Amino acid sequence: MPFLLHIPLILYMTYAQGHCLFCIISDCMHTSNHWGEWNDSQLLPTIQKLMKGYNRYLRPNFNVGPVEIGMSLDIASIDAISEINMDYTATIFLRQRWRDSRLVFPGNESVSVDGRLVSLLWIPDTFIPDSKRSFLHDVTVENRLIRIFSNGTVLYALRITATIACNMDLTKYPMDRQECTLQLESWGYNLQDVVFYWTRGNDSVRGLDTLRLAQYSVESYYTTVAEAVYETGHYPKLVLHFALRRNVLFFILETYVPSILLVVLSWVSFWISQSSVPARTCIGVTTVLTMTTLMMGARTSLPNANCFIKAIDVYLGICFTFIFGALLEYACAHFYTMQHQTIEEIHRDLLRELHESKGNGAIPIVSSTQPKQQPEVRSTTQEEPTTEQSPTQEVVMNGEAKESSKGQGCGLSTVKDASRRAAAVFVVENPHNIDRHARTVFPTAFFFVNILYWLYYLCL
After folding, report:
1. First vs last C-alpha separation in the chain
2. Residues 6+ apart with CB under 8 A from 172
3. What separation in angstroms does the CA of 454 have from each of 125, 176, 203, 384, 459?
4. Cα Rg for the chain, rounded, in angstroms?
């Protein structure tokens, strides 16, 4: 019975506590909503509010004037420079700035939105005209940055890797200097719609000063503002020019020094006896074949369709000429040695026959080359008496006969004398002098040719 009397009191207390708890929760919810409304009024507008009534298909300042778009670049790396394909591959950070009055909001702060919301905004149609292949990095998301400032300025940044064409002049390869460009143009908007400019002039490009390449070094760079003219109109264009100087030290160690050593090796045969035919022939043929292989290997990294002669081709051709000349020098020396030995053998045979003929008491017969005089036939009916000619008259007549015969054979004797003189020029009395002179002529000529070569390609 007493328990039943306390039931109403317990129910009343439970109701009172529940009512208080409900009031507290209601007050907390009301306070939370009030804080949320207060924060929303104080915070910057959301992207949904900015996008209210925004048409991304129309450019800013539509029907008012062109949009000024500022560009800046960061060159992250230049991965490969190909002489065969005439291009280079670079990774760049492209930043574009423009002002869109439709995105103005109060305050002095900026809003960084997710790059995937780029589809909600108008962006320039910038492209690289000389690009062969390019892609936008997308790990872990697409590498894009969108930042909106309170005055309506939009910052749009991209990370791009592109393979860009570069016309190269390889006439002085590998002592060449290449000037490549990176061009930025607008695809559909002409100069009446869009105007490009570098945000800070030459300082708009960063990263080239600290760039390290395998075969090149960045010598200089500068920026220009140009105009692209096509059939459809005039379009804005920005150009980055940068000069690349090839590092020749690598090619000196890989190509020039081995070719010089091969030329010096071919000179070793000048100090080998001419009777050592296998040794000298082996050195000559080996150096020629090795030089041919070196020339083929030096052209593997170069385009084959170019018709101009490169500096490395000239030098390898010079070295090949000297090596082949050393081989021909031994061929000539060996030929004249054999010829000299043959002449000496003939002289020895003649002397031996002469001694044998003197020992036998025989007298060598010398045939006369004077023409035989025919007896004169005189007529018996001649009234004048026949008298014998005096010796003086005979000498005079013989002299006249010799002069007449000499005049008739003048042309033939002249040709024979000229042929004998020409043959005497190619006759070497001592064939060993060929090697002796070659030891001086070949190194001296090669030294002067090297001086002319390096002066021409390094100083001109």
Report:
1. 124
2. 310, 311, 457
3. 49, 13, 37, 94, 8
4. 50
